[in-house]
Amino acid sequence: MFIRSLRPSSAPPSLRCFSSSALNVLKAGDVLRQTRVFSEEDVFEFSKVSYDSNPLHFDSKVARNAGFEDRLVHGMLVAALFPRIISFHFPGAVYVSQSLNFRLPVYIGDKVTGEVQAMSLKENKKKYIVKFKTKCFKNDEILVLDGEAMAILPSLAVEQVHSLD
Asked: In what residue span(s) does the MaoC-like domain sit (predicted)?
């Protein structure tokens, strides 16, 4: 599959690519990506809103004793890349469902790339129901999370006018 960049010169490099035979219109097979590094502050702030204070996220010794290399990023924080990518490109999108398979841990400081690929699109009352294949990769190659998402999009036109930062 050919992946064409839609990134304007002022867009952050975390907006990687989008592919389509018709530029700026979502088609089945198109891929949207974003890369980010999760910080200690991200994990701390997520723990405050989620009330998840598991010591695996805050105490290196506890994490290592449980068999991990270091403190973990919350899996749901990593998975939050998917609705972020979709809503960035399709403002007003409604997230309907998400399945998740947590394959490998993500550690604070890991570079993670979230990817959504349009699998099927169906028009319904001037809106579009889109099924996405979702994946996250650590260091551009190691699959750490996958699943499927369903979203209702107000349009198939791909927005790219604001920053993800």
From this structure: 33-130
Rounded Cα–Cα distance for residues 117 and 111 (Å): 20
| Chain-centroid distance, C-alpha 55 | 25
Q: In this structure, what token pair is assigned to residue 79?
A: 């998975």
Nearest Cα to Cα of residue 33 among 54, 5, 70: 5
pTM metric for this prediction = 0.81
How far apart (Å, rounded) are the C-alpha atoms in residues 74 and 52? 8
Domain ranges of the chain: 31-38+81-153
Tell me the pLDDT tens digit for each residue of 35-72: 999 999 999 999 999 999 999 999 999 999 999 999 99
CB 149 within 8 A of CB 132: yes
Residue 72, token pair as written in the block? 């973990």
The third-level CATH classification (topology) of the domain covering 31-38+81-153 is Thiol Ester Dehydrase; Chain A (3.10.129)
Residues 102, 128: contact at Cβ < 8 Å? no
